[in-house]
Specification:
Number of strands: 12
Shape: globular
Structural class: alpha/beta
Distance between the termini: 51 Å
Low-confidence stretches: 204-226, 264-274
Number of helices: 5
Strand order of the largest sheet: 7-6-5-8-9-12-11-10
Helix content: 10-25%
């Protein structure tokens, strides 16, 4: 049975005040900041406010958005595999239960949502409006209900404790501030909620494969060799696991937010020893 789209509580991504809905925009009643809705997609960071890698990759994915999924599927075929088999390697680590509220950060063209259970409620955020436009088309074609939002991972427009599962695939190392993005994913996860981060393993010195990894092998590396951002996690995260796939080119980091986090929240283990 198809789960209806989940509409999480939206907040100002830069100060976390709850937003109110106006005519064609969301607004912060405290400072009257407006976030306009473009073709049904709320825009929380227009291009003129982007900077650094976030601006660079927003433009890059805008340019390739129309061809992204076709090239991904074709590349999988060339490598003798299928998109589903490749994606399920890491998506099977997500513990999505019926009725769960799930957020994908950097949802792209929504390809991952095609292979997740239909009895959960989904939201997707991306820096590229072009990719979100393609995601909207794909979701309509696949009859999947999901809310889409444009913004940056470092400032998520969602209230804390909004999602049972939060995940990101491919690109955490390219964000302006990877640690802040991880802390934001944890902030919007519910107590006890699962967080998953998948990206390319920099130890291999192989780049630009993380959207289409193709080797069937798996491997386990030592703590000294792995490049998953475990050190960027705040203290107290539970059930931390790192898996490697495709000749160790891809890591999959999963963990759970603790049931309670002391205030002030989210100080990293690396900061604690300074």
């Amino acid at each position: 049975m198809m789960q209806p789209a989940h509409h999480p509580e939206l907040v100002d991504p830069f100060n976390q005040y709850p937003l109110s809905l106006g005519r064609g925009f969301w607004f912060n009643p405290v400072n009257d900041e407006k976030y306009y809705i473009n073709n049904g997609i709320p825009v929380f960071l227009p291009e003129e406010q982007m900077s650094g890698n976030n601006l660079k990759y927003s433009r890059f994915y805008d340019r390739i958005s129309r061809f992204y999924r076709v090239s991904s599927v074709f590349y999988s075929w060339l490598k003798g595999s299928s998109e589903k088999k490749i994606k399920m390697k890491y998506l099977e680590q997500l513990q999505v239960k019926p009725g769960d509220k799930v957020l994908e950060v950097a949802v792209g063209s929504a390809d991952n949502l095609l292979y997740l259970p239909r009895n959960a409620s989904y939201s997707g955020l991306d820096i590229s409006f072009g990719m979100l436009t393609m995601a909207k088309r794909h979701l309509r074609k696949w009859d999947i209900q999901a809310g889409l939002y444009q913004g940056e991972a470092e400032h998520l427009p969602f209230a804390e404790h909004s999602f049972d599962v939060v995940f990101h695939v491919g690109g955490i190392s390219l964000f302006n501030n990877s640690q802040r993005a991880i802390h934001e994913m944890i902030r919007v996860a519910k107590p006890g909620g699962q967080v998953m981060i998948v990206d390319d393993n920099e130890v291999t010195q192989v780049r630009s494969y993380h959207k289409n990894p193709f080797s069937p092998a798996t491997a386990t590396l030592t703590d000294e060799d792995q490049s998953a951002p475990v050190k960027l996690l705040p203290n107290g995260m539970r059930n931390i696991e790192v898996r490697y796939y495709f000749d160790s080119m891809l890591y999959c980091l999963t963990f759970r937010k603790p049931d309670q986090i002391r205030k002030p929240a989210l100080k990293s283990a690396a900061d604690a020893v300074r």
